[in-house]
Amino acid sequence: MLPKVELGEVSGLIKEVRSYENQIDIATVADELVYDIDELFPVIDTAEALGFIEVKDGKLKLTEVGNKFLDCKYDERSKIVRQQLLNNKQYKSILDEIKKRGEVTKEELKEIIRTIETSDEETLTSITEKFIYYGVYSDLLEYNSRSNIIRLYENSK
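The structure assignment produced for this chain is given below.
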């Protein structure tokens, strides 16, 4: 699963889980964070895809990686996100395709993502933007917003 929400939302969620001694039921966290339950699921899915939480029987449990993310300094967080993205098979397969092509446009990236995610156009556009956001944040991607060109970050090749 590819990230679908901003990292700040994920961070807020895992902070809330931690405040309940590392485990909380989904309904409680929705109330605490003032989310409609349907709005909360993409945040949960993204936190789970990053390995920050585990979901079981309607409860969210903070993982060791989630705790580490919250405990480290801000500049270290990008390294953790980077590693978690590289552990994500879907994200990694898209990075491999970008590497193979050398560079892609934002529209080409959306088409690559379309082969993995079956979503409506609006959602697909949002997922594409989040893919770029997480990639740039974690030094996996370079993005030129003027030309809409995406390539692997020099140090990630």
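Interim note for the steering committee: The chain has two domains: 7-69, 74-156. Strands lie at 23-25, 53-56, 59-62, 104-105, 141-144, 149-152.
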